[in-house]
Structures
1.
Amino acid sequence: MPTPRFLTLDDVAETLNVSWSQAYALVRRKELIAIQIGGRGQWRVEVDELERFIQQKYAEARAGSVPPEPAAEAGAPAEASEQRA
């Protein structure tokens, strides 16, 4: 059997080890390109597109351009004020 060209959002979520809603959020924000088949939210992601997304995230991590976690953002101003003191 040939390798499938498209993945469901369930497949994407499993591959990335995230929830379905997190995978869907990536599609909504256009971080991960997907196509919609039919009218009832049947999203499909090409295997090559998922691989491109993963490689892009690794490149961002290597470049240090990964945004901070929300909890870290809350602590950022305090750290900045500590440095000024």
Note: Strands lie at 6-8, 35-37, 42-46.
2.
Amino acid sequence: MIDAHAHFEFYKKEVPQVIEECRKELKAVVDSITEYRKTHVWKSWELLKPYFGFLFPTLGYHPNEARRGNWEKVKRVEDFIWEHRNKIVAVGEIGLDYHYAENEAQRENQRAIFQHFLELAVELKLPVVIHARDAEREAFELVQRYGVNAYFHSFTGSPELAKEIAENDHPIGISTGIVFIPEIRKTVEALELEDILVETDSPYMSPFRGQRNKPCYVRMAIEEVAKLKGLEFNEVERITEKNTVEFFRLEV
């Protein structure tokens, strides 16, 4: 199994323990090392670097940080991405999150910084990992405008939009939230299996109430997709793993 999106850095001192636990069940994890509040990409990079090879990093700037409009920090993250461009598999996560943007000024900051990193991805010829909440249509339109390959991680928009995104060759992330979010189940029903990557968004979106999520719980997402599609677990695991390897060009 491969978890297409997680954040090991948020486990802090528990990182070695959680990674060793996950190694027993997973082939690989794509970790979106993202600038967000005090979780700086350069600190997370150093924390996780010993595990590269099992863990495949992306680098990005979270929209909930982007709403602050701190262009000095944007420049620092951009420079860090340039420095490590040959070691990452995508730019992200980046995007739009209007759920937490408190006013139009914050939304405009998100838009400007999102487009800045889309331009960077075009320059670097890298795919992007998209975080879109209450702004899925706008994020999709910007992705199309810039002509980048995009993974819409932990998608919770409408099944109709998910299908449109997938028809434009952008994979959709089905998270472990499928256990408790009906919209995700409807999205799975609307999509072909070839359009789906499975993820946990750990330590968030836990399928177990009151517990932190872990990348090895990606099994739950695969199980639920298999039930909805009427397929065997192994078939869903094989195809979603292939989808992830091909999108990120993972050497596993």
Note: Strands lie at 2-6, 28-35, 55-61, 91-97, 128-133, 150-152, 172-175, 196-199.
3.
Amino acid sequence: MTRPMLSLLMVAMLGATQSAAAQDPVSPPREEPVAVGDYSYDDFYTGFRLSRLIGLPVVGGGEKPVGTIADVTIGFPGELEWVVIQPGAAAPPMEGGRFSLGWNMVEVNEGFETAEIPLNARNLRETAPGQPIGPVERPESIGRQWHVSELVGSALEIDGDVPVGTVDDIIAGGDAALKAVVFRDDEAGTLRAVPWRSVVVEPGGRILTVPLTEQVIAGLPAFDYAKMTEALPD
């Protein structure tokens, strides 16, 4: 392993193994609600669905199987930070099971068929014998983070704690910044979307709130996944 690669790995390991007290992150209050007319689905359609990453096969040096993507971590205010990997049979056993790498160390191949990392089973065995590269946690001083698996399936509420839907997916852009939350309208059964910057994530990540009325929610156009370009993440 070259020195630059080892340095990158150590950065990922150090960042991923620090403990955090912020287990229930919460978004800060919105300064100004995002008006419906201030965003367009056209922008959301140029992103990619984070759910497409979950379960993606992970390969290492020489395209050897390493495992699968188990989860993706989002840092405040809404950027992809860590990829949580479940080692496969070719990887060495690890305490805690999973390990994590920084988002910038993972390359998703065309067609979202595999994700490549600059490590293989041998590298992992030499670098962290019997030790996990994770779990994904952050120092309390850094603060908030969420996992995709926690947000998808969460309830979407409007102000006043009124449930209006269920989060179906999260959309990110090629720059690793989140674009939108796609949800299924409980009343109509239709997929709709709101910009990520309009959402407040309540502690625990099981409830998301948007500053909209039921009438506005009902007036949002249907969101169509088939219109997405699913551009590869950078």
Note: The helical segments are 3-17, 41-44, 121-127, 148-151, 214-219.
4.
Amino acid sequence: MTRFKQFLKECEVRKFTKADYTLPSMPKDGKFMLDGMAQRNASKNSAIALKAHYTETLELTSHNSASEPWYSDRGILFIVWNGDLTIDGDLLDDDFGMKPLLIIKGNLTVRNWLRGGMDTFVGGNVKASGFIIGHYNDSALFVGGDLTAAGYIPRAKPYKDLPDIVPHQIVGKVDAKKFDNLNSTNETVKAAFVEEALVKDGEDIYIDERAIFERSDKGLPVWK
């Protein structure tokens, strides 16, 4: 696995420019959010990714390692791919905070994608051979093209200061079996997923993101 501190060593860190957050295609609300964030943080840095293909899992954030303050200490607001990003393993956003923001101007191709608090803007298509799952405070996701996956499980809710903006918006088509996990209940998750993809906490039943990834990778059933 490539962890976020190692990842940053492979980037060019510099003051961001308008070109860093100009994408070829983007939902109107996504452009509004991105422009506003950029204008409010004009003194911050971008980490420009120089590597376009990872043969293993890429961890961009980690709550266990306090990734948000680590990026913040370096003044980094944006992580930017100027073209496509291909990950043979998983893409992990495993933190609560919404910063830094992730910008991929081209296409994103990945096995599984675990989404936490990082607002993400993809100018092209998103294609996952496995699952895209939002956990913790699943944040905004704006995609300028299509989204394709074996399973798409968002959990995002609108931000309090932007209540009219739907937090996940896809310009193109969504070719994935979808389960909205924001308002799920014990009954709805039990009806949608096999028992091995769930975890019990007291009286509550939740999806187990890691178990879903593992089962999907092995070709085992996840959906009922």
Note: The chain has a mean pLDDT of 95.
